Structure prediction request, 99 residues.
Amino acid sequence: MFNNPRYTTKGVTERIPIELQIFMWSAIDTMEVKRKDYLQVFKLYAENVDGWSVQIVEHTQEQPNYKKKFKLNAVDPICEKVYVIDDESHSTMLLAEEY
Prediction:
């Protein structure tokens, strides 16, 4: 899974910085699970830590159950839900509202 051509939708391209897109692809690539689900979910939101804005990236999948939370420095944190879907011929990163 996820070892095929990768695409992003117009919404992702316009609203998610390329650095964050690359980070999410990397999070999928480095998952420590026996099997990756065809649907990967990323919840992006901001937290205030000691007066600083922090980008939170919460990565989950349903089968098998997986959840990992990342904290990244960010000037302008993004608040979005992003899906990455693998259909065996290609993988697509899209905003939840584009599904």
